[in-house]
Design goal:
Layout: E1 2-6, H1 20-30, E2 34-40, E3 61-65, E4 68-73, H2 83-98, H3 100-107, E5 111-114, H4 121-132, E6 135-140, H5 146-152, H6 159-174, E7 177-180, H7 186-191, E8 199-201, H8 220-231, E9 235-240, H9 249-258, E10 264-269, H10 275-284, E11 291-293, H11 302-308, E12 311-315, H12 329-336, E13 341-344, H13 351-355, E14 358-361, H14 366-378, H15 381-398, H16 401-411
Protein name: O-antigen biosynthesis protein WlbE
Pfam family, one: Glyco_trans_4_4
Domain Glycosyltransferase subfamily 4-like N-terminal: 16-205
Length: 438
């Protein structure tokens, strides 16, 4: 099949997050399908931005990564979640909208996937799918506008929230398939018009091959930091991932204060909007002797980092949005590494508890985090090792991308075409319709 995958923030191992589109697409390419990824040239979640061809013009810069045909559209850089990010989103969507006829003629997609975190790309994906007579798939990362409303305090009547709400309802109404990473979304989506027969759950996962063989050694400064803690007779609690408000790292720092007299140090690797403020907190509050921010490390070094520490921390805010479930990438890495997990969460699902891979404590409670650290580090090393082994077994069975990619694509293959809809094999396309504009 020819698959057209719209993901504004798509990345790769060399560029950084988002990784999920890359891993799914790579599996589809290996299965013999052709995948074209449409993405913006600038994304705040990438560690590195792609190099643009100055002669590419409106067609975007083409690049092939592991058999996936990426098409980068030149979008403005931005910081934070203000108007700069809005301009970046609008630029990407406008360019793909304008290129719809050319993209359909060139790529002849049979499946079009809208998957950009925000839902407004459904209008562009719908335009492409209708022109091509293709299957329209909407992939849900987070529930927008509910996520910015409940996580960031955005008013439900904010113009951006209203646009997101309109796009969300259009997606649930018009998509042939809705793929959700979150497992407990059925009631919410049905309340906004989704026929639940369209819904399939495909969570985040890991690529097993990246965990085969010897991992890439840690950067010298990170290895030295962990080594110094161990030589001083201290255990290490680690965190690897984004440094933003949803990651509840303030709770971890507050918990570290309560453990000032315990033989434990904390090592953080990663970057994000909150990094500068958090690093200032570490310095200003006298935590730097026991809490260390060591910058970012390549994804290939994550297994080495997790193998070097005793406990991995992941925390969340106490917000209602998590009643629909969670699907964090870093938790899959933690568990695949066989590292026992301290999970500070209250959500619709809890993979750590489900797998028996660590300890779950209430979110936003420094006391609970400190007590959880003590409990885990007070266990025999063999018990922690058994926790880690259970986590790895769970991930391999439930969250391996070769399995997830097959599940995703199987949902895109209807047993019979709907009235007026082409089959994926290329029977006559749908009657021409005027696309709905946002």
């Amino acid at each position: 099949m020819n698959i057209l995958y719209l993901n504004h923030y798509a990345g790769s191992p060399a560029l950084g997050m988002e990784y999920r589109p890359y891993y799914l697409a790579r599996e589809w390419v290996r299965a013999g399908h052709a995948v074209t990824m449409l993405a913006a040239s600038f994304s705040h979640v990438r560690a590195k931005q792609p190099q643009l061809d100055p002669n590419a013009g409106a067609d975007g810069t083409s690049e092939t990564i592991d058999g996936i045909a990426y098409r980068w559209f030149d979008t403005p850089a931005y910081q934070g979640n203000g108007m700069g990010r809005m301009r970046n989103i609008a630029s990407f969507l406008a360019q793909v909208w304008q290129q719809a006829d050319a993209l359909v003629a060139e790529l002849k997609p049979q499946v079009v996937i809208a998957s950009s975190t925000y839902p407004m790309d459904i209008w562009i994906a719908q335009r492409l799918a209708r022109k091509a007579g293709a299957k329209l798939v909407f992939e849900v990362h987070d529930l927008w506008p509910l996520s910015p409303i409940e996580l960031s305090g955005m008013s439900p009547w904010h113009p951006f929230a209203l646009i997101c709400s309109s796009a969300e309802r259009a997606a649930y109404r018009d998509a042939d398939v809705v793929v959700s990473m979150l497992p407990k979304v059925h009631e919410h989506m049905a309340s906004r018009g989704l026929d639940l027969k369209k819904l399939v759950i495909v969570p985040n996962g890991i690529s097993p091959e990246e965990w085969d063989g010897r991992p890439e050694p840690l950067k010298a400064e990170v290895a030295a930091c962990i080594g110094a803690a161990h030589r001083a007779g201290r255990h290490v609690v680690g965190y690897a991932g984004s440094m933003g408000r949803p990651n509840a790292l303030d709770t971890l720092l507050d918990g570290a204060k309560l453990l000032a007299d315990s033989p434990v140090e904390f090592v953080l690797v990663g970057d994000g909007h909150e990094r500068e403020r958090l690093v200032r907190r570490i310095e200003q509050e006298g935590l730097s002797a026991r809490v260390h921010w060591c910058g970012t490390i390549p994804k290939a070094q994550i297994p080495s980092f997790l193998a070097a520490i005793e406990v991995a921390y992941i925390g969340w805010q106490r917000v209602p949005i998590y009643r629909f479930g969670i699907a964090p990438n870093k938790l899959m890495d933690y568990m695949m590494a066989g590292c026992p997990v301290l999970h500070a969460v209250e959500a619709g699902n809890d993979p750590v508890a489900e797998a028996g891979a660590g300890i779950t404590v209430p979110p936003e409670s420094p006391e609970a985090v400190a007590e959880g650290v003590k409990r885990l580090l007070g266990l025999p090393a063999a018990t922690r090792k058994a926790m880690g082994k259970r986590g790895r077994t769970f991930v391999l069975a439930e969250h391996a991308y070769p399995v997830l990619a097959k599940r995703f694509l199987a949902a895109c293959m209807p047993s019979a075409p709907r009235p007026g809809q082409s089959t994926i094999q290329g029977l006559p396309p749908r009657p021409s319709q005027s696309p709905r504009r946002p």
